[in-house]
From TrEMBL:
Top-rank taxon, per record: Bacteria
Biased composition (Basic residues): 143-159
InterPro entries: Bact_metal-bind_prot9, ZnuA, ZnuA-like
Role noted for this protein: Part of the ATP-binding cassette (ABC) transport system ZnuABC involved in zinc import. Binds zinc with high affinity and specificity and delivers it to the membrane permease for translocation into the cytoplasm.
UniProt name for this protein: High-affinity zinc uptake system protein ZnuA
Keyword terms: Disulfide bond, Ion transport, Metal-binding, Periplasm, Signal, Transport, Zinc, Zinc transport
BP terms from Gene Ontology: zinc ion transport
Family the UniProt entry places it in: Belongs to the bacterial solute-binding protein 9 family.
Signal peptide: 1-32
Protein source organism: Thioalkalivibrio sulfidiphilus (strain HL-EbGR7)
Sequence ranges of Basic and acidic residues compositional bias: 132-142
Main subcellular localisation: periplasm
Lineage summary: Bacteria, Pseudomonadati, Pseudomonadota, Gammaproteobacteria, Chromatiales
GO cellular component: periplasmic space
Amino acid sequence: MPAIRQRKLTSHPGLFLAVLSLFALLLGNVQAAPQVVVSIKPVHDLVTGVTEGVTAPVLLVPGGASPHDYALRPSEMRALQQARVVIWTGPELENFLVRPLAGLGSEVQRVTLLKDADLVQHPVREGGIWDSHGHGHGDHNHAHSHSHNHGHSHAAHNHAHAEPDAHVWLSPENARRIVTHVAGVLAAVDPDNAAAYGANRDRMLARLDQLDEELRARLAPVREAPFIVFHDAYQYFERHYGLTPAGSITVDPSRAPGARRIQEIRQRVSQSEALCVFSEPQFRPAIVATVIEGTQARTGVLDPLGADLPSGPEGYEALLRNLAQSLVECLS
């Protein structure tokens, strides 16, 4: 039976050669496209937009998990070891990646966004209670401008060398810079597909501009309304749109806040007349009920990672739209 099929195929040499050529072309394309591994979902969504039609990047941390205390599974370690390009925020967020990345060969291109992508950066806010001065400043400040717009009452000079807040993807301006930087890196690593990366970059930048304009108009009515977040993950979003955060329940999301901390936040809710206290799907929300007990504050949910959203540019856009929607609904 196999011999009969072979005679039938070889009896059409033109078709046989065409199939072989197509197979070789497809195989060549697969081999030419580098394996790209991305640490967290929002950045993976942006990178997926840049690599569309060329390669599908691998996501390490699932959307429902927190990168603050993640542990790699064997399959994720294998993906890292097979990567040509690895894109992560930096040790400030994904500390679990420091040792695995150090063990990769020199041929692997490591993109540390906080260091490499010329992002707008703000220092981590000390404590979890902030005043509202400076909240109206946006992302037009130059990257690494840590000496002002710090969002609390400590002197600015104390933060000249403070650790940067790593939640940089929640600013549309930083999303634009991530897309631009990643497209440049991939074009250098994979010049055969440089034109595709460039076209995808331009398309992504146009989408982000449109999203930014939409959200600015949507959030304008609630800019002055104070609110409390679960942990300090939203500084870039807050500053970009001039919002008025009053504090966070926990400074370190990997540790539960103590009784004193809870009492401080309860006082802050009352003193600031915070309209809403937000929980997150990655952490237990029960603490939020304790914080608002006996107050007029409402509760809402903010998700900085987009746990259940689709992958790709649509997922990133939905992430920011959902943040805006949750804020508007709870603060209006």
